[in-house]
Design goal:
This protein is of the alpha/beta class. About 30% of the residues lie in helices and about 25% in strands. A hairpin with an 8-residue loop joins strand 1 and strand 2. This is Alcohol dehydrogenase. Keywords: Metal-binding, Oxidoreductase, Zinc.
């Protein structure tokens, strides 16, 4: 099998080859046709997350090099282990759920395997999808994507379920007022399309990039604002009033400060992005305002099934997707790092 592998941190990926794995037991071998490029891949390459105050969270442990990134995987079932008896067919188009836990703890057994302390996350802690093939440990991580474009399907396993999980939390605060989406990158644009389908009220997008604001407006946002403009909060309130909820798809100090500044009393901020930094707010504001802050890390297997059915129903307009050959993975990552991607960028294998 061929791969684009991380052979050192903070360095370009390199083409590598290894034997194609043979599935055993309950394993499923997937021949990959598409793999999305995610901003978290950049954090893996850098080897850290920015924690603010010049502090870094080292994420170089737990994997050996060369290592294969990529967790937004779509393709087809190529082979199965001897213990896989039914429910999955060779050649079946599929997407692979990458957020794999131990399968045995209370968290896993109550449906929140993505939050398990034992992580076997494809492309994060075990080899992923910047390759011709990948192994999933069990058929429950294989989703039939019949009726869904493979260019889109892989991204649903990360950007899709992340934005869906965030929106489900936000919907608990929906009283007919606005939802503010901060950040119109790939995940934010997916969140916009889901919100247009599910949110009762105006869906507003804030971004510092005028090109992305224009893209959000063209995709159906009720209003767009430049979150770096000092008058943006006042203009938003004048146009729509305070938000019932905001979702920060950037995860920077400036984006989170803006996201919490535009919500009303009893509202919530949902934090999704991982760009980095530090956030603080006066403690008395929590009871005086009051408001809530939630963090979201992808979503469960059950949520993934719900999202696929929603997309299959045609109620969600797919985000813009551009494709590159696997050999251009480094260029795709560089474009993502420097904000040159509108929507999602997907590698074709």
């Amino acid at each position: 099998m061929h791969r684009q592998s991380m052979t050192a941190y903070n360095a370009p990926l390199e083409a590598t080859r290894t034997d194609t794995p043979v599935p055993t037991g309950t394993q499923v071998l997937v021949k990959i046709s598409h793999c999305g490029v995610c901003h978290s891949d950049l954090h893996m390459i850098d080897g850290f997350f920015d924690m603010g105050d010049d502090k870094k969270l080292d994420v170089t442990g737990g994997r050996s090099l060369p290592f294969t990134l990529g967790h937004e995987i779509a393709g087809e079932v190529a082979a199965v282990g001897s213990d896989v008896k039914d429910g999955i067919n060779i050649g079946e188009p599929c997407a692979v759920y990458p957020w794999i836990g131990c399968g045995e703890c209370a968290m896993c057994k109550t449906g929140d395997e993505h939050l398990c302390k034992t992580t076997h996350h494809l492309g994060i802690t075990v080899d992923g999808g910047y390759a011709s093939h990948v192994i999933a440990p069990h058929p429950r991580y294989i989703f039939d994507i019949t009726g869904i474009d493979r260019q889109l399907a892989g991204g649903l396993m990360c950007s899709g379920i992340t934005s869906y999980g965030a929106l489900k939390k936000a919907l608990a605060y929906n009283r007919g007022g606005p939802l503010v989406i901060v950040g119109a990158g790939g995940v934010g644009m997916m969140g916009l399309q889901l919100a247009i389908a599910l949110w009762d009220g105006p869906v507003i997008v804030a971004d510092i990039d005028p090109v992305k604001r224009d893209a959000a407006l063209a995709a159906g946002a009720s209003h767009v604002f430049d979150s770096s403009n000092k008058e943006a909060r006042k203009a938003l309130f004048k146009a729509c009033g305070p938000a019932d909820a905001s979702i920060d798809f950037v995860g920077a100090e400036s984006s989170l400060n803006f996201a919490q500044s535009v919500i009303g009393k009893g509202a919530a901020v949902i934090v999704v992005g991982l760009l980095g930094g530090k956030f603080s707010t006066p403690i008395p504001m929590f009871p005086l305002r009051p408001f809530s802050i939630h963090g979201v890390f992808v979503a469960s297997l059950g949520d993934t099934k719900e999202l696929l059915e929603l997309v299959r129903s045609g109620k969600v307009t797919p985000p813009v997707v551009s494709t590159r050959p696997l050999a251009q993975a480094n260029q795709a990552l560089d474009d993502l790092r420097h904000g040159r991607v509108i929507g999602r960028v997907v590698l074709e294998v």
